[in-house]
Amino acid sequence: MLETLTYINSDFPIFATVMVFVFGAIVGSFLNVCIYRIPKDLSIVRPGSSCACGSAIAWYHNIPIFSWCLLRGRSTCCREWFSIRYPLVEFLTASLFAYAWWVHSPIVAIIGMLYLSFLICSTFIDLDHMIIPDRFSIGGMILGVFISFFFPILHGIQTTGLASSLNSALIAISGALVGSGLVYWIAVLGEVLLRKPAMGEGDVKFVGFIGAFCGWQGAVFAMFGGALIGSILLLPLIMFGRIIHRNKKASQTSSESMNDQALAFGAQVPFGPMLAVAALIYFLGFNNAVDTYLKNASDVFCSSLPLIH
User: Fold this and answer.
1) Would you say residue 117 lies in a domain?
2) Alpha-carbon span 213 to 102, nearest angstrom
3) Of 87, 103, 119, which residue constitutes the final position of a domain?
4) Based on the domain organization, do 151 and 71 belong to the same domain?
5) How far apart are alpha carbons 202 and 266 in whole angstroms?
6) What tens digit of pLDDT does each residue of 198-234 get?
7) Which of 83, 109, 127, 223 is the most buried (most CB within 10 A)?
8) 46 is in which domain, residue-wise?
9) More confident residue, 67 or 302
10) What are phi and psi of 161, to 5 degrees?
């Protein structure tokens, strides 16, 4: 089957990419179900998709992306609005799948589709509920090690055999340990300095999952790249909010309410989405540059060790 996919991709690249995009949209529709139901401990299989009023949604009204556009975002039964997140998640998943197919070999791309699905689900669940379910973090970490053993090419190992499989599994395990350990000690240091929890346990396990699929380099980049992305996105929002708050002339009660909201915003910011964005950037093409930089930095550090003595 993999040989057939490779043949189709080499001879009909546009057709293959379009098919992957369609497949990604279908997966994205399923991810919407997971994002909504998993935090509520509901089955992701039954019942089928239904409207908020309880009416079942017909299959021809549940076609990814197109149905929402054709229905103009409204249900046919009660004319209630459907969230725009549904087609956005479907389009995002389809686009990421197609891009992964374009930049990676078929085997790595297919594995990457599973990896990307975990990242997407974790991101939106964390945005909604400030949690990352263990099935995506711990489960994804274990799955990453398992897949690495059977598909060493995930970590750039082109040879096959038991030695290659063991080496690939060790890369995944070291990535999980380095990633989760790095975030854990940063969280401990942050809690000591700030005297309040600086990072949740879910983030620790989540970076371990990223490391299992991307190695320790991917985990390190997700951690520091996520922090940079968070700073770029959050600092303007915080500054804008403070300017509005300073210029707002309201009653004392209203002012206290705004202070409470500002405190809550500053105290509870999900870090998982930022980690996921950095992990996406690494996996979808930035890995070579990061690996080269870290290797050069390691070589410089090791070469300077004799000078210390």
Assistant:
1) no
2) 19
3) 103
4) no
5) 19
6) 666 888 999 999 999 999 999 999 999 998 988 887 6
7) 223
8) 1-103
9) 67
10) 120, 170
The whole-angstrom separation of Cα 216 and Cα 237 is 31
| Shared domain check, 214 and 81 | no
6's CB contacts (< 8 A; 6+ apart) are: 105, 106
Residue at 125 is within a domain: no
Counting DSSP H helices and E strands in the chain, the numbers are 11, 0
Q: In the predicted model, is pLDDT for residue 249 greater than 70? A: no
Dig out the tokens for 163 from the structure: 């030695």
Q: Is the overall model pTM greater than 0.90, yes or no?
A: no
Rg (CA), the chain: 22
Q: Please give the backbone phi and psi of residue 71, each rounded to the nearest 5 degrees, phi first.
A: -85, 0
pLDDT at 59: 73
The amino acid present at 82, given as its one-letter code, is F
* Total structural domains within the chain: 2
172, 305: one domain: yes
Residues 6+ apart with CB under 8 A from 53: 75, 77, 78, 80
